[in-house]
Design goal:
single chain, Rossmann fold, 8 helices, binds zinc ion
Length: 221
């Protein structure tokens, strides 16, 4: 896996990358593979303002932008591009418009691998809109130029529908960084982090799933 030339990460919300693939990303950056992250929105429609409140509707984008930058530092991503799209509205964007944005990046960066959600298996309409745009953009390239796409499928019944993931990456060596990347998005993830830290302490079997491996489904366009 580490022989990639350039990895392009495409997700709509800050924190999608941390949960789904921050261990894999860290393994790439650690071995010198350039990684570019196109993050669609700033999750500005999130409703978690903390208790005590650390943000309001106006300041939330700022808070999440800073968290995203911090998470990227942990993952070793030095090319973060915030697309400035509107949270929770991506499904209403023209899909060709979204695909144009991705296509531009494909021509510029010529990635050999893309990490994104698996189309139609992202649970959230923003997730599916973004991965659909990736699929359209990649399909516009001649077959020989198309990067591999690792899709993250997170429907409850994804395995029933598309089978088991065909890519399994052992991220145990960077589990700590994964936890740190998730922690960086603290406005969204504080409950999770405590849960994971407890599971880690208890060596609970769930931790295997969350912190020691990341799985993907190769998606063909
Ligand atoms: Zn998301």
């Amino acid at each position: 896996m580490l022989a990639e030339k350039h990895v392009l990460v495409v997700f709509p919300h800050p924190d999608d990358e941390a949960f789904s693939s921050s261990g894999t990303i860290k393994l790439f950056t650690q071995s010198g593979v350039p990684v570019t992250y196109l993050c669609g929105t700033l999750g500005q429609m999130g409703r978690n303002f903390g208790n005590p409140m650390f943000a309001n509707r106006e300041t939330l984008p700022e808070v999440r932008e800073k968290e995203l930058i911090d998470a990227c530092k942990v993952m070793g991503i030095d090319d973060l591009r915030m697309l400035g799209l509107h949270d929770k509205t991506l499904e209403f964007e023209d899909e060709e418009f979204l695909a144009d944005i991705i296509e531009k990046a494909l021509h510029e960066l010529k990635p050999s691998l893309i990490l994104t959600f698996y189309p139609k298996h992202g649970v959230h309409p923003d997730h599916d809109a973004m991965s659909n745009a990736v699929a359209i953009a990649v399909s516009r390239l001649p077959k020989s130029d198309r990067p591999t796409i690792y899709g993250k499928a997170i429907l409850k019944n994804s395995v029933d529908l598309i089978g088991k993931p065909d890519v399994e990456i052992d991220i145990k060596s960077v589990a700590e960084e994964k936890l740190k990347a998730i922690k960086a998005h603290k406005s969204q993830t504080s409950g999770w982090v405590e849960l994971m830290e407890q599971q880690l302490k208890d060596s609970s079997p769930e931790i295997e799933e969350w912190l020691y491996r990341e799985t993907f489904w190769t998606f063909e366009v």
